Amino acid sequence: MSWDRRRTPLAFVPLPRMDVFFTIPAAAVLVPAALVLLTVLVVRVRREPGRYPPARLVLLVLAGGYALGVLYVTLLPIQVGFGRYGFQNEWYADIMPVPLVTADLRSFSLNVLMMVPFGVLLPLLRPHVRTVRAVAGRAALTSLSIEVTQLLSGWLLDNRHSVDINDVLANTIGAVLGLLCLRLVHRRWSLTTMHDAP
Fold first, then answer.
1. Most CB atoms within 10 A, among 20, 70, 91, 111?
2. Omega before 9 cis (within 30°)?
3. DSSP secondary structure letters along 125-145
4. What residue segments make up the domains of the chain, in order of their start?
5. What is the reported pTM?
6. Residue 88: exposure state from Cβ atoms within 10 A (0-12, 13-18, ≥19)
């Protein structure tokens, strides 16, 4: 099929190239996100006050703060680039799909530590999610979602982050360690309570 230049003259006019680069600071994302989370929490507490005892409110606030911290560490600040500042490599250039081969000990350790609170908070907020398999599965899915978001932000905005299967592995290990720590504390707390009982 050939195009008729007389019928579609604009199709052959080259568009001007736009070279754009700017940074969206972390505060521009975190502050509105925190306000939204706080607003949702206040509205839900007012609608169902009996459902949110003080201990659960504390856990929800901690979980919200933790989520914002993970957002800050993994995606912020956001760098936006188009034109010659945009993504220039092949789409797979920043993907590291082979586990452990390219693992960096420092980065791996930090990714483990980042998800330890996940393994602690999730069973406390969702008591039915308390097995190793359940926590590991949700941690892996959460970590994979972060990696996919990083990949898409790199493609679309040039917000460069490497997408590494080692991060998913480390995050999952961290969440399981958090769950095991919670179990250990709970077991010791229960034994102490039993010993102190009259």
1. 111
2. no
3. H-TT--SHHHHHHHHHHHHHH
4. 15-196
5. 0.81
6. exposed
